[in-house]
Amino acid sequence: MSKTRALFCCGCQGDVSARLTDGKEIYPRRPDLWDLPFWKCDACGNFVGCHHKTNNRTRPLGCIPTPEIKEARRHIHRILDPIWKSGRRARSELYSMIAHVMDLPEYHTADIRSVEQANEILRVVRELEVAI
Ligand SMILES: [Zn+2]
Question: What pTM, to 2 d.p., does this model score?
């Protein structure tokens, strides 16, 4: 009997019963990742990693992304990370600014649920990049 939990799946655009698995299933050619936990949606095959370095090592990083959303998130990080790494703004302050502009209680890149939403965040991040 495998462990499952309800998670939002971007591929299915709804809550699904995600199954806990490991890197051996997700990345068969990456033995270095075999011991890591992942939550997989068996309906569409997409998956999400976990906060595996914490005490709660099977806590998902966010919702289950599609490959397109994953790529869009990487794009956001490529613009966002240098801003706080440069020290122009603290990371937490930057994330609060995005949440404020997006009218969200909190902002986490791992919570982005659609390519449309990712593009909207990207626009906001680009504006911040030149404004601060
Ligand atoms: Zn799915």
Answer: 0.88
